Structures
1.
Amino acid sequence: MQELRRIEYLVTTFFGAGYFPKAPGTFASLVAFIPVLLIPNHLRLVILLPAVVIISILAIPLIARVEKDKGSDPSIVVIDEVLGVWLIYCSPYIPISILSFISGITLFRLFDILKPSIIGKINAKSGAIYVLLDDLLAAVVTTILLHLLYFILKFIILIAFS
């Protein structure tokens, strides 16, 4: 717990969420959704996107310091998952609902864990910036898929009720 007193551990573990004993990345992803719920839909983009950019820039040297202590991409570093979730839900076109929560977090974690294609290539590189980039790319892919899913659902509903 002494580690939590140091700012780099406080930020990179997202206030200790990274110390969750099982699946800390998934736990942090779930916790990251809580602030999303508190932001009005019309303000999500203007609050979450700048937060993702600013915290990403600030987190890179902090992650690098934690990596010096704990090794490359340690499991306690979960700020990347938090920023990924915030990036997904900064889109005002993704409604905040049970469906978007389950589908968004599930897709994001699948891309983050399985690391298909370019996500895996980025993850294979070492360095703090790559710890963030693979999750941010997983979030971008998730966002694109959620937009497609909601477009298709709206289209089906439109056809069904016309």
2.
Amino acid sequence: MPSTSELEALYRRRGAATFGARLRRWLTPPAPFVMNPAEPKDFPLGRWNLYIGGAGRAVAGYINLDLFPMPGVDLAADAEQLPFPDGVFQRVECDAVLEHVRRPEQAMREIQRVLAPGGYLHLVTPFCHPFHEYPKDYRRFTPDGLKELAAGLEPVAEGWRTGPTATLLVFTIEYAKLVLPFRWWRAAAHGVLGWLLFPLRYLDLLFFRTARAGRIGNHCYLWLRK
């Protein structure tokens, strides 16, 4: 399991301005997924909005909360015990976090507590995705599973953020790295396969239009209203 210092060092390396860091970013292949253009993004922001799990990124308009104090984090706290009064946030983003939470039911109770009446919650979770520890990885979700977890909130939109082609590409790259014995070989395989395979990701723009995308979808999303 990565330690706090290891995770912080990872985020700092990603954003470093040294020549070596810039070279790594230039050589890094494009992501093996394309976002679903039909996913809604226009639900209103309020005066106060909460982003859970945004370490290493800038999230304008939100209080950025994560488990550890890292670059981009405004407040270090546990999602299972949010340090805010009831009903204060008009919008809460919880993007690829619930798989890392030991007690997602408790985290969801806390999110519902701090969400204002009429406010919106945006959940994104993996379904078919490799194991990844940040710092732990406990579970996977389906859209129906998210609805059960968020019982008491009204679903207003759902779908797949990243589709079956993303699943195929991610697992192909991870499988190649799994069978290689040396770290630099794995890094090279990640780069080479990433550049070779990424054009296939656009096939998901076709799958998003069908009901079959969820059979082996990569990440699902759910918008809910309190």
3.
Amino acid sequence: MNALAARILDALPQTQCTRCGYPDCAGYAQAIAEGSAGIHQCPPGGAEGVARLSQLTGQPVRPIDPQFGSEGPRALAVIDEAWCIGCTLCLDACPTDAILGIHKRMHTVIEAHCTGCELCIPVCPVDCISLEVATPERNGWQAWSQAQADQARKRYEAHGKRREKHDEPTVAKAPEAAPDRKRAVIEAALARARATAASRADSKKT
């Protein structure tokens, strides 16, 4: 990463939400530095974020491009404990390891570490994750401090290192049909969740 890209990265909110069209804030910063991305593709940064990037790049200030979303208050992911089946898919999806839980056990969101990126929502097979507005009267950088951005960046980097270590191939370990196994686990958990829901519905009728 060149010096300009590094300065641009420092000016981004580090939510790692991918809404800009790039896999993370670093990828977006590099694209801006190379001239292949505009400075108006980061909804979490909002208008103030565009102004910061304009000062660094010399590009004119423009409104956030609606195809990437719109500026708004910071959101917080919330897990419905009654429906969580402990599939762990959201743990892998969270870029800052803000979700705490283990296999087949209820998960919960650590509020202080959640960036509101929304990446955990589409991977949940039972739709038990929703978003709540955390800063109803504050948008963009007014809803997100530099200290929070710095912490999110450190946690994202730690998350990446952990994933790299986990993905390192080992000679002694035999290959497994992980996707098939995980699918079977999720299907079994879904069946249990449906049975529990049906049982609750029947008990309410009687």
